[in-house]
Amino acid sequence: MHKLSHILRLGLKELTSLRHDSVLLLFLFYAFTVAIYMPAAGSIIGVHNASVAIVDEDHSALSRKLAQSLLPPEFQAPQALPYDQLDQSMDSGKYTFVINVPVNFQADLLAGREPSVQVNVDATAMSQAFMGAGYIGRIFQRELLNYTGQADAAAKTPVLISNRALFNPNLEGGWFLAVIQIVNNITILAIVLTGTALLREREHGTLDHLLVLPLTALEIMLAKIWSNMLVVVLCTWISLEVVVKWALGVPLAGSLTLFLLVTALYLFASTALGIFLATLARSTPQFGLLAIPVIIPMLLLSGGSTPLDSMPQWLQWVMQCSPSTHFVSLSAAILFRDAGVNVVWPDLLALAAIGLVFFAIALARFRKSLAS
């Protein structure tokens, strides 16, 4: 009971220190509000409002029909462009797509000579170039089949493919991005808060005061973990309710209670990692330099930005040792697919095992740093 009382009081001391740290409080507010809303609301992965120009050398009804088939919100209204300005417009980046309809295009099509339409794509606009070119190709193919009366024949295919998008019927990229931003921010804050808390103790000399008290390294470490865990879990819950569900309108199908419990388990592992890095550093700037090569791979290779299946096999095995990989999988399964414990228990066990290993290593390193 004495040990539990020590852990509780030390944790309350951590919360008091955080309450007076205006910079960290401001960072917490930013990480769980602005840093989630702006990417989710402003980052549109698909083609949206792409600039288009058309060089119409045919001046036929069919060329005008092709221009009119490119509609918002995917495309802006196509702008007429003289042929001699095509290269200049592409070089200046004024248009993402410039379409060139050649002379006698309609006549050649009706005569069965298979004319071609040139679509010039500014590939520096990577987010829209690939998908936009595919959109234009499918739109033009549909319009040309309708114009030549072959649409019915093309529709009579031997196999009918039916696509159904579950959990996100409209394929809204912002829905997934909002949750991934929360996961990424949890990772950053778990490592940064605990690491800076320990370094603040050392730099202010209060860690030496703690060592003269009847306290163990385990008690000091657990106090820092539960206090920072409480702060991050509380901020996560508020962010999900206010920013994700209310402001962004993302329907979360799963249990928030289960997700918050999983978040606490993930924080147990990631905060231990933050303490381990803090024991290696001698100052806050050193800790920041150490944290960068740890946090960035955890964010980019955990499966949130790039699917694990698209990575090399050896890298997939390596990332299975990262708690962030299992947390991303658990987050998507619980919040979007309404998965229960009976479905996600393998990732839960893996996350708990990784957390215990990280905690044991961090505790051993923390004891060694205190002894020295």
Secondary structure layout plus pairing:
Blueprint: H1 2-19, H2 22-32, H3 34-42, E1 52-56, H4 61-68, E2 79-80, H5 86-92, E3 97-101, H6 105-110, E4 118-121, H7 126-148, H8 151-155, H9 173-204, H10 206-211, H11 217-247, H12 256-280, H13 284-300, H14 313-319, H15 323-335, H16 341-371
Parallel strand pairs: 1-2, 1-3
Antiparallel strand pairs: 3-4
Helix pairs in contact: 1-11, 2-3, 2-9, 3-9, 9-11, 9-12, 9-13, 9-15, 11-12, 12-13, 12-15, 12-16, 15-16
How do the strands line up in the largest sheet?
Answer: 2-1-3-4
Radius of gyration: 28 Å
Number of domains: 2
How would you sum up the major sheet?
4 strands, mixed
H and E string: HHHEHEHEHEHHHHHHHHHH
Could you list the spans in which at least 5 consecutive residues all have pLDDT below 50? none
* C-alpha end-to-end distance: 29 Å
* Number of helices, where a helix is a run of at least 4 consecutive DSSP H or I residues: 16
Transmembrane segments: 21-40, 175-199, 211-240, 252-280, 287-308, 348-366
Domain ABC transmembrane type-2: 142-369
GO cellular component, one term: plasma membrane
GO molecular function: ABC-type transporter activity
General description of the model:
This protein is mostly helical and 372 residues long. It has helices spanning 2-19, 22-32, 34-42, 61-68, 86-92, 105-110, 126-148, 151-155, 173-204, 206-211, 217-247, 256-280, 284-300, 313-319, 323-335, 341-371; strands at residues 52-56, 79-80, 97-101, 118-121. The chain has a 4-stranded mixed beta sheet with strand order 2-1-3-4, with helices on both faces. Strand 1, helix 4 and strand 2 (79-80) form a beta-alpha-beta unit. The longest helix is centred in the middle third of the chain and has 32 residues, at 173-204. It is elongated, with a radius of gyration of 28 Å. The mean pLDDT is 85. One of its GO terms (cellular component) is plasma membrane.
